[in-house]
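At this stage, I wrote out one protein, both as residues and as discrete backbone shape codes, and that material follows here.
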Amino acid sequence: MQADTIDITTLPWRVEDIDFSRINYTAVRASEELMLLLCASSFIESGSDLYTKNLVNYFGEDAEVAEWLSLHWEHEELQHGRALKTYINHVWPQFDWELAFANFFAEYSKICTVDEFEKTRALEMVARCVVETGTATLYRAINECSNEPVLKEITNHIRTDEVRHYKYFFKYFKKYNEIEKNGRWAVLCALVRRLFEIRNDDTEIALRHVLAIRYPEQAGNSAHARQMSARVNKLVRRHLSADMCLKMLLKPLDLPPRIQPSVHYPLAKLTQHLFFR
């Protein structure tokens, strides 16, 4: 958790330049589900330094990739966490963010390991593309489900960052796949494996710890957790862009136009089931 060490000279935008006095508190506080989602998202972004460490260990022999991860990707992801945390502290000051995040990180740090990575570098880059697809799609949905101007500014910045990150991971996938020569089937399998992992992704862990602090009287009540999670998912699902998501997911497969329709439909159904459940 190295948020205080961010090198702002590498950042495409800065939290310090956001005018939080412009927040329309009524607009954002009207949705409990949105507040829960923002808190959960802030936890994941704020733990990005751990994930960066794992990625650098995995790709460390490649100076180009390791440098981009350490000097750019990590700092931008941590800034996402700082921006969301600052926003939450303004609109929801009674929420104990520090305690909830500490509880989340204690659990998250035990499961965020290199053991979960794909067996080859190219296929791990495919998995990274899936993750960036999910985050870009999520922040676009949050941006569209709220009219609060400061939140829209923040989520637009984050969405833009995530799309750019996707492009880097895709570039590095092509670089490694020139060496590994993974066929479309291997790439598709890696893509689908990461899609299935989304069901047990970090967001569910983060949301559980948000709920534990927000509703201490319901701590340990799995039925309540499922109910609130379903409400959050419903909010996001109404604003998700399936077309954008599928376009990003299909890109690593490099499918000829005549084959795309046969893959598009089953992947669309799977993505709808996992991303948009």
Q: What stands out?
A: The radius of gyration is 19 Å.
